[in-house]
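Re: the 133-residue chain
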Amino acid sequence: MWSSSGGVMQVLSGALSASSLRQKVIAHNLANFNTPGFKRYTVCFEEQLDRAQGMRALSLERTHCRHLGGGAGEQVPVVQTDRSAARRVDGNNVDLEEEMIALVTNQLRYNACVQQVNSRFNRWRYVINEGRR
């Protein structure tokens, strides 16, 4: 998505996708708060992003001389099961307070990403309109 805008928009796009998925996963965890034996899920995106940004050499392949070179590929959020010890007798490891904190944190991250995307689009609109707002 937005390949012409460089890496920043690609990272923002991935972060928005991860936040959207994280919202669904948190809602799923909260919905199963009283399900005996349920193990909570988490979304892993930031760790993958850090790992990809730490890579120095990227292998690029062009299939046509007019194609732009690619990067390491789009980062995909991964949903993982939290197998940590159950906090309750029924085997469920969902902590209501942790999930609510994760929900608020995720919403703040999502809002910050949306503001950054809007800011970039506003700058592009300004340039396209030749400085007229």
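The mean pLDDT is 82.
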